[in-house]
């Protein structure tokens, strides 16, 4: 039977206007029933003090906040069907649960999870931290993401610090995070007089829906951040989390950093304000040229990938030939002075203490840091333009290399024409070819270890001066010698 249909319409009626007994008809899209649903087994492990304020930080916001907050050692965990979902910490002023950092709960598990936390911990007040997606937030005027404020919801009148630093999460918007919504609604329905406040950080994307089943914890992604908020924003929300439970935090939120063996990782958001300013600009002409520039970086990166792989294959083949085939060729007897030098490659590895002096390590680290800043600047600019983000960083490094080479060639041309090129060259390095030869390394078993040091300048061999152009060092040491030739000697004037 068809109802509410315009008889003059040419199109077929919509599906909602067709009344039918669907259970009597074949539906290819019908999903089989999953059977009887059973409630999850939720257990809180550890000696966790009860009747204290509780801070619950969930998801992306909770994981990033926990990295910069001095929580101390973990004292317990929250397990759902024997899978760890929450990490429990204890501060002097409150208990802290960092939830859903390594796995996510299905929708059906949210209410039992919130009920267990509120029932077993018996918290005197609650402070929750979560996110809200700015693309779907409904407001009277559109708000760009970089201007989106921290928002809050509370069962009671919140602290004045919260109302002055955050804005109310207003209807008709809904909280996308089911765990915060479940806990807040549970507290409001069971203990209307309890103080519970949820603080919501702005998030640039719409979160993916909750999974249908609970998956095992994935701790390998704990070091990865989906989004990193500015330090100022995190410090404010850190203060508000404690203000919501009537406490004060003695320490500020700090930029996350970690040291793993010889790997040092430091994260900073000091330049985020400039990036947000760049993202909010609407310079059409600059955007056109910048998009073309970074689009060319994709082509350069693709060609560079092919060339790089080809060079690696060629070097691998050459090295294999030198190791396994070259030693069997040629005469077994040869003069020591004319020993065949190993094949050289146009790619010279820079290994402090091996191929370059260990004293060069600070200079190498500074150079790598500067190159990395230029590299990340490419990602930032291209990201603000929504252009070729991946190729932008290497493209900036390539442009930096071209500029440095142009500076070197310009200095050489100026030196030949006017003699002023030394002033340009002296900015980055010093030419020692007119003084002698620089000692960059000494064998451990060399008798010169007690005399020479790395950084010394050898000015002459016997009576032959090395402060001249050309390879006088090799020519003099590799000349034909006889038994009447006196022992070689070295002169060095000073240490660098």
From TrEMBL:
It comes from the Eukaryota. Keywords: Membrane, Transmembrane, Transmembrane helix. One of its GO terms (biological process) is membrane protein intracellular domain proteolysis. Residues 1-34 are annotated as: Disordered. The keyword Ribonucleoprotein does not apply. GO terms for cellular component: cytoplasm; membrane. GO terms for molecular function: metalloendopeptidase activity. The keyword DNA damage does not apply. The chain crosses the membrane at residues 291-315. This is Endopeptidase S2P. It comes from Collybiopsis confluens. The lineage of its organism: Eukaryota, Fungi, Dikarya, Basidiomycota, Agaricomycotina.
